Amino acid sequence: MIEAVDLCKHYGSFAAVDNLTFTIRRGEVVAFLGPNGAGKSTTMKVLTGYLAPTSGTARLAGVDVVQDRVRAAEKLGYLPENGPLYPEMTPREFLSFFGEARGMSRARLAERLDFVTRECDLHELLHKPLGTCSKGQKQRVGMAQALLHDPEVMILDEPTTGLDPNQIRHVRELVKKLGETRTVLLSTHLFQEVEAMAGRVLLVHNGRIVFDGTPDEFKARGGGRMDQAFHTLTATS
Question: Which domains does the chain have, with CATH numbers?
Answer without folding.
Answer: 2-84+150-235 (3.40.50.300)
